[in-house]
Specification:
Helices cover about 30% and strands about 15% of the residues. Helix 1 runs parallel beside helix 10 and helix 2 packs parallel to helix 10. Strands 10-11-13-14-9-15 form a six-stranded antiparallel sheet. It has about 450 residues and is of the alpha/beta class.
Length: about 450
């Protein structure tokens, strides 16, 4: 029996390992932690969440919710563990991060087909390999990947939100609610009037930031996980239409429609820790403390973890990968997770699942799966590997060049479109309902037609 080497025991690598192991394939799962740290991870557990603890919506009429449903249909393993370790978060799937990671680690370490090896891999190994080293790939391995892919850059930036202790929040000002009262009232909300918001905004835009290292200055920001200070720099109202939007969040004690609202989401199963939603940041710690304490209800908040910023790594997948996640130039070498240019926890798990399934099929001499673009995972893998959408024709001389890949998450814009009657074309709810229904039916039919799944 051929074995598979998986580089990285994060979300994608852990999922890929479990997919292979349950098919009877031996796996060597390499993880450099705890011997070498990343600057963002705090444990050596598998599948550690380092930014938010949310996997996004569970509603299948939401793009992220549909992707979860597709993983369930395809036999995803981490999605089951996530639901087993969920915490209240309204319509979203949020997890108690430590419980989840411990559960995944135990599952992997107890599996007789998986050997966990705690050492850094500095070069792409020979043989059957899945590279799932994630956005915090070590410099030595990144250089090996850069050489293999013949890429100029592999880096962009991500940032982590602060966490505060629940008992230190002032609930005379803060209140429990989920937006539009959907699901449980599982978010803590800190409301602001116009004067409080403007004071907060002035502190934020004038706060000192941690200086970047020289090697980080050419990296790019991760658009959907931008530091809050970068968002604020785009205009005084940007936050009020982004992470601090007040719509659908009214304190029933007052009935007041607020000017802005800071939301906090449960971070552990004991409900003792909450993270500030959308508040990933690169501010110096003293500045973070001043900013957080300027938020109504958080004046005395005990800050358990400050926000930090770290460099991320991804490849230019359209030039390197097929839609199966196998590389174009070397058979039996797959990439999975955020290093492919996907964005988000759910997407990392999903691509790890697909890479694991396809590696098993490769070893068994079965055709690799290319999922239909009517499905969310099929559309996502098509988007990150399709060079056509990066094609740029110069308006000056009609010359053709290709733009660098911008990481993306699951969203309706990448899915094959559906035709609606003219009078219904602006009915977004109907459209997403039909798209999600079509995706589920398409995937189920696809699996039924693959008799060797």
């Amino acid at each position: 029996m051929q074995e598979v080497k998986i580089i990285g025991a994060g979300l994608a690598g852990s999922e890929a390992a479990l997919q292979l192991a349950k098919r009877g394939i031996k796996v060597k799962l390499y993880e450099m932690r705890p011997h070498k740290t990343t600057g963002a991870h705090v444990t050596s557990d598998c599948a550690e969440f380092v930014c938010s603890n949310s996997l996004g919506s569970s509603d299948i009429t939401n793009a992220s919710g549909l992707l979860k449903k597709e993983m369930e249909i395809l036999g995803g393993e981490l999605i089951k563990i996530a639901y087993d370790n969920s915490v209240p978060a309204g319509n979203a799937l949020a997890i108690a991060r430590e419980d989840f990671s411990r559960a995944v680690t135990k599952r992997i370490e107890d599996d007789p087909n998986i050997e966990v090896i705690r050492e850094e891999i500095t070069e792409i190994p020979q043989g059957n390999v899945i590279i799932a080293s994630g956005p915090l790939t070590s410099d030595t391995l990144a250089n090996s990947i850069k050489e293999f892919t013949q890429s100029e850059h592999l880096h962009f930036f991500d940032a982590i939100a602060p966490i505060v202790e629940a008992d230190s929040i002032n609930f005379d000002k803060a209140f429990w609610a989920s937006r539009y009262d959907k699901g449980e009232a599982s978010y803590i909300n800190c409301p602001m009037n116009k004067e409080e918001y403007e004071r907060f905004y002035n502190i934020l835009i004038n706060a000192p930031r941690i200086e970047q290292h020289d090697f980080e200055k050419d990296a790019k920001f991760f658009e959907s996980c931008l530091p809050v200070e970068v968002l604020a720099s785009r205009g005084v109202d940007t936050l009020r239409f982004g992470p601090m939007k007040p719509v659908g969040l009214i304190d029933k004690r007052t009935g007041v429609e607020n000017y802005a609202v800071v939301q906090l989401r449960q971070d552990n199963s004991a409900k003792t820790l909450f993270n500030l939603v959308g508040f990933q940041t690169n501010l110096k710690w003293g500045a973070q403390k001043e900013l957080i304490h300027s938020i109504p209800g958080l004046e005395e908040a005990n800050i358990i973890r400050y926000g930090v910023m770290h460099r991320n790594t991804f490849i230019n997948s359209p030039q390197i990968l097929n839609r199966t996640l196998e590389t174009k130039t070397r058979k039996g070498l797959f990439f999975a997770g955020q290093i492919t240019g996907t964005e988000g926890y759910t997407e990392s798990i999903a691509t790890g699942m697909l890479a694991g399934i396809n590696m098993a099929r490769y070893i068994s001499d079965k055709p690799l799966l290319t999922l239909p673009t009517e499905t969310m995972l099929g559309a996502l893998t098509f988007y990150i590997t399709d060079i056509a959408h990066l094609k740029h024709i110069s308006s000056r001389d009609n010359s053709v060049r290709y733009l660098p890949l911008q990481p993306t998450n699951s969203n309706w814009a990448i899915v094959s479109p559906i035709e609606l009657p003219k009078k219904e074309r602006k009915n977004k709810k109907l459209k997403t309902e039909l798209l999600s229904k079509r995706a589920v039916e398409t995937l189920e039919n696809f699996i039924n037609n693959c008799k060797d799944m």
